[in-house]
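Q: Could you write out the predicted structure for this multi-component system? I'm mainly interested in how the pieces pack against one another.
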Amino acid sequence: MSFRTGLCATGARRPARVLAGVLAAGSLAAIAAGPAGIASGSTKAGPPAGSITVFSQGDVNVENLWQKVLIPRYEKKFPEDRINLVFTTNSAENTDVYDELAASAKAGKSSSFDLLDGAVPAEAAPAGLLTPITTSEIPAASEVDPSAFKVVDGDAIPLRGSEVLLAYNSQAVKNPPKTLNDLISWIHAHPGEFSYCNPSDGGSGAAFVEAVLSKYTPAAENLKMQLGYSPSAEKYWAKGLEVLKSLTPDVFQQQYPNSNTGVITLLASGAIEMGTVWSDQGTTALDDGELPSVIKLTEITPPLEGGPDYLGVPKNIPQAKKELAYQFINWALQPDQQVAIVRAMHGTPAIEFKYLPAKTAQLFADYSTSPELPYSANTGADMNSKWTSVVG
Amino acid sequence: MTTTAERTATSRLEAPPGGRPRQARRPTGGYGLGRVALVVGVCVLVIFIFGPILWLMLWAFAGIWHYPALLPQRWSLSWWRQVFDYPQLVRSVGLSFTFAPVVMAVSAVVCLPAAYALARFPVPGRRTMLVVLFAANAFPKIGLYITIAGLFYALHLMGTFFGVVLIQLLGTIVFMTWIPAAAFASVPRALEDAARDVGAGRVRVFLTVTLPLAAPGILVALVLSFLASLDEAQGTFLVGVPRYVTMPVQMYSLVSDYPPQAAAVFAVLLSIPSVVLMLLVRRHVLGGSLAKGFEIR
Amino acid sequence: MKAALRRGGYLLAASPPVALVALFIGVPIAVTVIYTLGHLGGPNAAVSSIALHQVSAGDRLLTFGAYREVFDEPNFRADLVATVWVTAASVGIVLLLAWTIALFARLSGRRVAGILTSLAVVPLFIPVVIGSYAILQFWSYGGFMKTIAHAVGLSGFPALGFTLGGVVLAEVWVSLPFAVLMISSGLQAVPDSVFEAARDAGASTLQAAWSILLPMNLLPTIIATCFTGISILGSFTVPYLVGPTSPNLLGPLATETFQSFNQPQQAEVMSMVIFGLAIVVALPYLWATYRSNRDTATS
């Protein structure tokens, strides 16, 4: 599988989400009329009794994960049940689904979706549009790192994860930086050999920027900005922005690529020796030979931004549907499925590594289970704006 | 009927049909030097124009290619397979070639009668109209999309086929009105009058005299609007997504999210129809109709 | 009465394009203008309910607060300067190239002319996003120019990807066809006898071009300048793909301000600035057509 993977979508997600939000706010009429294009993809005839409708958004590899891995395996295990997948590669459509959720909840009607994957759950959970997750209904939830529930108020559950790592050319760099401080000194010591992308254009750049800003921000204030919008906390960014600005003369060509892929391309061409990349994107590029095998991926401390991709169950659906959704979630969190997901997506598992088979767990020996949380949409917008104004 | 006159009229727009055209004297100052300069100039122009496209074509067949190798270290067709395996890419090509003719046709229906009226009748405020069209074209689109979105939502145009047609149509109106208006205006009235004198009706005169003589200008406008529709990405993204993802919209995501090979394959595929179109209409586009259309009279 | 009716009929026949433009471009422009002046309600309510850092006029008629805020930003001022110089440089190069090509085409035989203009028109048929991407790959680090320079030992050759120089190159590439078409069709319309007369009077080719062809071909040249300038001022795709993070042109900055910073009001202010620059560029064109209309009217 070679098309670019998974949570890299996170990179594009932030700006797209804001844009879509602005546009969709344009009309409740459109929402009432039903989300354009969504219903069309779902079912041909009426779904059989034991079926759930899943909405997912991501790149092609996420679609393949569902179509080629999850659905066939699940329907083999539960021959009576059917999964109707409604999939789109377009992140703007998340807003349509979100609006549908909100509208149906308000009208007290059942949502047309029984299970949500992708960016929607993380947005819908704080708004109280999802059913709380409990271990009595989903026993496997106990194997998930508890900190993953914090940001979603326990209303959504991780399916898979990804995080931003440091990629470096092992031929040129014998001792890669271990910490963020080491990395910053390394960049200064090796002018022109490091690059991260414009945070507006890619999550792998945003992760690095957020890490540096967080370094000088009191943890409690930082958490406020991750969980919500707290403009008063942004004053702590000043120091971090100065540090980032001081890096500009030493990054490759004193410029910032305009996508996650841009950094990969620079690494591939040998233009730079080090850069920040999404774990899944980097691994896939290595598998495809797009990145030469001398490129290695490593995690630094504190870990850069990353995190789980959540599953959520809408509040207003019939109990029978809920139970089918729970059954699916519980199944998907079993080690077998998690290994399959990790293989297909080059992502990280949702359950803690100790529950995985030793061989798979070893792949993640260097990974943290709890990478930094991404800033919320509005905090991220301000971060991009400040970065462009001071650093870019 | 009026063949000589017709030919005279045509020859102003295109080269004289058949026969060797009159040739201006070569530039003075050394036959050889001029020629060398010409050859060098043409070479530089060829590299400047075609170099990037050819380079991208190489990428489309590259398995592994790391700088500073002159050619890929490993050739591969795997990206072609990937692109064809990805139904959305193929679908986007189909969508683009559905929208382009539709937009072109709608634009013609909306604009051509107006162009004729502006060229032939004393329309009140006609110059103001032409200038308004021009001014609207000068406003940066990004500023408009924010508010157009609100309008489209209110009119239930968001996410619809017609909405996409409309947003693409807006970019074609100026030249679809201007260029044909100039083409109609350049048809000598005497010819029409002569035809009418021998008893032809208004419609017949229009179809047999006016339209054929204005055809080159109209064709240029049609081609330009076809290309404009094919090229439009931002507005289409705004209005059409997720159902109508056309080639250029798809290309944006390819360019920023995929390795160069995938984008290169797609770019090569996208260029093929454009090149075919170019070979078909090149002669007409190179005629003089374009310049005339931009003179507000 | 009948005459008035007929005039109404003409107006009706001529109005669909203008009506369409008025509704879908004119109205949004008006809404945009009042938004930038601090009116957040009415048609702007939906956008402003989500936007960050807006400036409201409150009870006042209008406020220039949003404009002041945007102009106070050094980043914006740098991009404004970059936009102006990239536009000026690109238009200058396009005009020079287009004139050279058109002149050669006019003075040489028909075959050479055909080849030259056909060449120059090719970019018209390549979607801008593909052209920009191709140019980026060609001129950037690891691209053709860098590779060739490396092969012949010029390792210091600059990589133009992600620089304003690269943006100028790409803008020239994209704009060349229109300018060549405009200027060459203008030149083709100059009768041979004019050349002969100039030549007989002892003028060199260049002198003839300067003193006779330029004035005769002034309007197409102004049109090419104006349309090329306007399209570069408001361009997004080329600077977004080829340009540096900063300073870059206002088109990408406005888009980023809207999409990534969630500041639509500031983005609209930037659009107004681009529009203002476009009007300045258009003035010679409007003046020239006005003058040529007056001339034809009096002659």
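A: Regarding packing and overall arrangement: Residues 86-293 of chain B form a domain with the MetI-like fold fold (CATH 1.10.3720.10).
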